[in-house]
Amino acid sequence: MASSNSSSFPHGARDGIFLKAQEPAPLCCKPVQSLPDVCPKEPTGEGRGLCAGPSVVPEHDRWTVYSSKVNLPAALNDPRLAKRESDFFTKTWGLDFAEAEVMPSFCLPNITREHFGLYVQEMLQRERIHERCKTICPIKEDVDAISSMTTNHDKPRAELEKVPKIFMKPDFALEDPATFNAVLPWSHFNSAGGKSSRDVSSSKLLQEKMSHYLDVVEVSIAQQISLRSEAFFHAMSSQHELQDRLQETQCAVAVLRSRTTAIDRVMCQGPLQALRIALTRSNCVKLHNKLKLMAAVHQTQPTVQLLLSTSEFVGALELISTTKEVLQQELQGIHSFRHLGSQLCELEKLIDKMMVEDFSMYVRGDMSRSLREEPQVLEKERLESLVFGLLRQRKLDFLDTYSDEIMVSAKAIVAQCVAEALVHIEGIDSEVVTKFAEQMRVMTFPQWFQLLKNIFESFLLFLQRIKATLNIIRNVVLEVQLSSQKRVPGDLGSESQTRESQANSPLLLQGEAELAYLTHEGLFISDALNEVQQQVRDHNQDPVTSSRGQQSQAEALSCDSTSEVVETPVGREPSLMPGETTMPTELELKRIMTNIQDLLYSASDISHDRCVKVLTARAKDGSLERLSVAEFVCLSQVVEAFAKDTEELCGRHSVSLRGALQSQANRFVHRFHDERKNKLSLLLDNERWKQAEVPAEFQDLVNSIADGRITLPERKIPDLEERKPAEFLLVDGQKYAVVGTVLLLIRIFLEYCQCVNDIPSIATDMLTRLSDLLKHFNSRSCQLVLGAGALQVVGLKTITTKNLALASRCLQLVVHYIPIIRAHFETKLQSKQFSILRHFDHITKDYNDHIAEVSAKLVAIMDSLFEKVLSKYEVKAPMPSLCFRNVCKQMAKMHEAIYELLPEEQTQMLFLRINGSFKMHLKRQLARLGVINDGGPQHGLVVVDVAFYTENIQGLKSLEHLDLNMAEIWEQKR
């Protein structure tokens, strides 16, 4: 032990660090030395001084392996190793002092087997010779010593083996009954009591046996002591030397302690005291901030009540949310706030109900106020606050409430407009006529029309207000959506980054501690948090301040657990974790945006539906069908303007009102067509088919059509000098002799075109009805003229050629305007509706066929005349004959009848056909009479009559250049 303990004290000091001295130890050059005696002689009393002892403070002599008093085998074979815990060193410094593993010295070289290689090679041959010599002749002293030791040890060992093994057991104890009975067998004694001679002898024998065992053991112990006497006495002498060295060590330790105490007093106590004071101050600041934070949290409920009294729902919710976060983070475990979390949750639920009710009240107040006098949006800030609060609390069904109020308000608008209209109308008792529909039917059309315009105007203002309100709501939703999109990248950061940012911003902890304290001074926690974050950003820009902050935070983190004022959490209510949000998700926000747009569409549809009810209530008794064209056009224009305005305002193409108007338009068109068709039928039934004078207004009408205006001209103030009616109607430079019915027909189809201009939605229906009207005129005029129906209807005596020519000219005038009408309707139709324009092609063909039939009728009249007259023709004097005179007379009458009615080209074509008919009948009669082209007397007489006929025909107007070609009447000479 002395070797191991002494070797642990380093000798030699350099710069305050003690290093173990290293001796030069040449491995192969130094001769082998014998180890010192294990048991040296007693000390002479000349002890070494303090400087020679193992001191850690002063410099001392160099220690070598020869300074050790006990070799390694003696230390390892120490019989007191089991009681080592009672030694001085181990008792003071613990078992690790003796058993501790000593780190290898960095100053000593690492000795390996290769370093002894040369020595081993040199000694190998000597060792072999020594071993061979020992086997050949062993040393006598060694043989005697071995034999003596063997004899001396064998005898005590044999006697010691006779001692019972029970006495040698480590757990031998007489207190144990089994051990006691085994050592003292009481069974050999008399159990009946009393002492017999046998018992006395047995006890003596047992006592002698145990005495013998004791002697054997004592002899063995004495022998062992004698074998180790020298070591024992050496240990006793070493004890004195150890005591001297311990005294020296004690003095050295005392000096070291005094110096250490002075160093501690001078260099350590002051700085440590400063650190303790700084740490105490930091803890006091934390405690003060925590108390201020608790005071601010304590004021949360009164502040929330104050905010709710001014309808600051968003501020109240933000305050509650921030207070929950503070309770969850900064004030977690505070016993006095254990119920505050649940109270804030209940308060939040109450705010939810208040917001929903306040939003309903706001909507009702907004819908019930005047549409014309007040602004579009009522209390914009209040609406934004309500919508933001509802979104924050995920009350996403608030638009349903708004939709219900829209429906109720739309009904109220109609009722209010009707009530206001009845106030200004006399003769309608609202108490007698209680229903709105009956009240509207009692009104005249101008009164009802004004009411309808007022309703349209009110609904436009109503939709503008709804759109403005929904725009405010949409803007709030967009702001929430943008803020959530900005917050997403920050939420994706790891928790380690958050902790690092908190570690780099020491002001944030202090700022969060002071932040709730600002609430009772007029600021919200969210505002204070923004200010603190700004201070932290400014603080991070200063590297000196940042380093100091990190140092102070390191001191704060090294705080004792005794400085904590927070208790363990007891019965806390669950609350939101830090960073958790209750805002709607991106999908929910998009759904709300869609619902806002759908709500605007719904408001437009509701407005149109209420207007449809007003329209159908008026049309229930058929009053809208009996409107004049101008009135219905005004109605259509107003409805179409309202539909376009709502479409531009709401972006919704509502079809209900247009559909109702289209239904009424169809009924109006049906009545309109029936009236004009009946009127045309009455005109045709009373038409005597005589040429009528053309009033100036009709000529102006035709002229406007020629200028491209397919509309009815406005009524002009009559001139002082009225223009006289004309005999013919001038159309594109041509004269048209017409009857009065055709003039009115031109005005009628212009009325159709005017309706299409005013009401484009009825273009297809109007086209069908107009084609039906033109067909009716064609068929009816054919029945009256060609079919001679006018004889019975009007009472004409006969249908003259003049009647036929006049009818043909009227038909030609209608045919002239059919392409113009077609082109006008083509501009009002869509491309997919052009197929119905084929009706005009059919009508044009029917009219042309009718005109051709009239021409054929005129030819047929003359043909029958020729057949009747020429059948009595005889070739005899006097010349010209009476037959040819009658023919020429009838031809002159025909020419006189149609000359002014038909144009010159048509007259020439007609007389060419008549002349052909005459030649055919004359040829037949001459063939019957047997007159041939032979130059005889009869041929000469016929030539005279034909010349008379030709002269008379060519003497008529416009027939001067007519080539009659009368040579075809002669048959060839036989």
From TrEMBL:
GO terms for cellular component: cytosol; GARP complex. GO terms for biological process: Golgi to vacuole transport; protein transport; retrograde transport, endosome to Golgi. Keywords: Coiled coil, Golgi apparatus, Phosphoprotein, Protein transport, Transport. GO terms for molecular function: syntaxin binding. Residues 734-863 form the Vacuolar protein sorting-associated protein 54 C-terminal domain. Acts as a component of the GARP complex that is involved in retrograde transport from early and late endosomes to the trans-Golgi network (TGN). The GARP complex is required for the maintenance of the cycling of mannose 6-phosphate receptors between the TGN and endosomes, this cycling is necessary for proper lysosomal sorting of acid hydrolases such as CTSD. Within the GARP complex, required to tether the complex to the TGN. Not involved in endocytic recycling. This is Vacuolar protein sorting-associated protein 54.
